[in-house]
Fold this sequence. Notes:
Arylsulfatase, C-terminal domain; alpha/beta; 4-stranded mixed β-sheet
Amino acid sequence: xxxxxxxxxxxxxxxxxxxxxxxxxxxxxxxxxxxxxxxxxxxxxxxxxxxxxxxxxxxxxxxxxxxxxxxxxxxxxxxxxxxxxxxxxxxxxxxxxxxxxxxxxxxxxxxxxxxxxxxxxxxxxxxxxxxxxxxxxxxxxxxxxxxxxxxxxxxxxxxxxxxxxxxxxxxxxxxxxxxxxxxxxxxxxxxxxxxxxxxxxxxxxxxxxxxxxxxxxxxxxxxxxxxxxxxxxxxxxxxxxxxxxxxxxxxxxxxxxxxxxxxxxxxxxxxxxxxxxxxxxxxxxxxxxxxxxxxxxxxxxxxxxxxxxxxxxxxxxxxxxxxxxxxxxxxxxxxxxxxxxxxxxxxxxxxxxxxxxxxxxxxxxxxxxxxxxxxxxxxxxxxxxxxxxxxxxxxxxxxxxxxxxxxxxxxxxxxxxxxxxxxxxxxxxxxxxxxxxxxxxxxxxxxxxxxxxxxxxxxxxxxxxxxxxxxxxxxxxxxxxxx
Length: 483
C-alpha cells in the first residue's frame, strides 16, 4: 500500500480511506516514517524484533511458505516482551517469517513447494514460539503455497497438490504458484475471515479476561498481489481492483474501531496503522496514473526500491488516553522502533543483545519531540539486497538506480546518474537530481557510517553485536561501495 493510497496523506488520492483518515484526526500522523526494507518479510522481522533483517540470514528477497523460521529462537519479540507484562497476545493474518514444518522422510523440504511436508504433525517455531498465545492465518503471501489457513501449530482442512493452472482457474484463484491447497480455500474471502477472527478474539479478551491487557498483531494479506477484493468491494473505488482492495482494508479498520467502541475500551487501546512497503507494480499503476491517482504520491519508486516510494509509509497511532490531541509529527522514525517504544511505555529498555536498531518515539505522544532521543540514521534495504542510508536531510543510495528492477511509470530518469546517488531531501524530496559530485565529504561520511552500522551489529548505543556475515561475490559487491 503506497503512501498515496491513503487520502489523509494525499489530498489528490482517488481512494477515500475514511476510517484510516479518522485515526489520523484523533491521534498522531507521522510524515517521515520508513520501513527498514521495501519488501514484506524483512520489514516484519524488524517490526517484531527491533533489528534490521539483513543482520539475519536473509540478505535479500523474502521467505516462502515453507521456509524455516527467520526470527532466532533466543530473540525477544514484541509479543514475548508483552507476555512478561501480563498481556494476552495473538497474531491473525499473514505471518511470512518462516516456521519449521515436519518432514515425511529424510529429504529436505522444498521451501517453495513443500512436497515433502507431513501436514499431520505440528508446526514448530511458528508464531506460538515467539510470544503469541494464538495464531490464525496463512504462512506467507496469497500467491505462495500452502493455500490454507493455519491455527496455532496445525494446518487446517484437507490438502491436495495443485500443479495445473486450470485447477486454480476452476477455484476462481488469480495466478499463483503451484502447490498445496486446502479444500474450499477462497482468496477473495481471506480478508473478511481475518476481520471476523480479529473481532472475535478482541471480544473474547474483553469477556473472558477483562482485567488483562491484550496485544493483537493483524498483518493483512491485502492489498498485496494477487489483488482480489471481495464482491462487496469490486468496483467500489471507481479506480481499479487495487483501489477496491484498499477500500476493503479501510472498511476493516472501521470495524475494528467500532468493536472497541462497543466494548467501551477505545480510550485505553492503542491502535497503530501502517504498511510494510510501497505499492506493487501488480497494481496496474499506469492505468491508475492515467486517472491521476499516484500510489507513491509525489515520491519516486515503489515496492522493492530504495527510493522514498518504496519505504516512506503511512504511520498513524491513536490512543485517546495517552494522546490527547491531534499531532502531525515529522520525526524520522523506522519500523524497527516499535519494540523500544513499547518497552519505553513500560519504563523498560532493551537488553544489549536485543532491539539493536530500535529507538523509542514515545516522546511524540505528547508532541515533545525530544532531540536527545532522536534516531541518528535509518538504513533502507531493497528487494535485491542493496542499501541506502538516511541521516537527517541526507540520503545516500549505494546503487546506480532503485536497487530493484521494479519501476513506477511516472518516474523520469534521475539527473546526473552515477554508481552512487546522494539527495538532499529538504530540497529534493522527489529525488530528481543526484548531487553526489557536489558533496564528496558528505558522501564519505555516509559511507563510513554505513560501514560502522554493519560492523557494529547495531545502530543504537551499546556493545557490538554479531551480524551474520555477507557471503558470496554478489553480496560482497553490494557492500563494496562502502569502502
